[in-house]
Description:
- By secondary structure, the chain is of the alpha/beta class.
- Helix content is 39%, strand content 24%.
- It has a 9-stranded mixed beta sheet with strand order 1-2-3-5-4-6-7-8-9, sandwiched between helices.
Amino acid sequence: MKFTSEQCLDDGVVEREFILDGIPGILWTPGSASASAPARLILLGHPGGLHKMYPRLAARARHSAAEGFASATIELPGSGDRPRSAAAEQARADLHRALAAGGPVDDEIIDRLVLPLVDTAVPEWRAALDSILSLPEIGGPVGYSGGVIAIGIRLAVVEPRIRAALLFAGSFVPLTMFEEARQVTIPLQVLLQWDDEGNDRQMALDLFDAFGSREKTLHANMGGHTGVPQFEGDAGNRFFARHLSGCLSTCLCS
Length: 254
């Protein structure tokens, strides 16, 4: 991992951009973080386009930093300046046509769009986690917050260093991944916008029902995709404070 820029924001948060194996990312660290008191880490999921998503990601990271959490994110495959996939672009175009037509989205389109993304993105997230946790001022346990929800599902199943997840129910999930959802056992908080114009509400509710976690909470709010109430940020901080406290960073190295 190579850091390419560093700036101290006005609230004392240190923002560092980095490149890892050609993948751009950003790490936000609270001013209180140090080798003797490492900050717990939250991975910030998003739908792609790191530059476009920056204002929202930075706001989420700074809100979490106020509670002592570090946050990190990376660009998704095929987004931003990363190489495009012709197959993914075709699947995305087919999805937009189906949504514009007002009819149901065929499962085959969702599979073509989401499954390759998950298969590629999850190993990249795990590699980023390896590098970030090697920094002395960053420790665990680790949380995952955001979408694409299918990526969060896969990470919750395969990555033991992630101990809690706040999942944003705002994207399609292949039916085959419902079986993976049943394997998720970590504490979950799922955020659902009830009137999200691009989301299948019933699918989101069915997915929540499928999760195997003994502790899972659904926060459903009225409004569209970008209308998440500000108080949900505080709720997310409280969720991670409950589940990412009480374990030293060394417990994640095994």
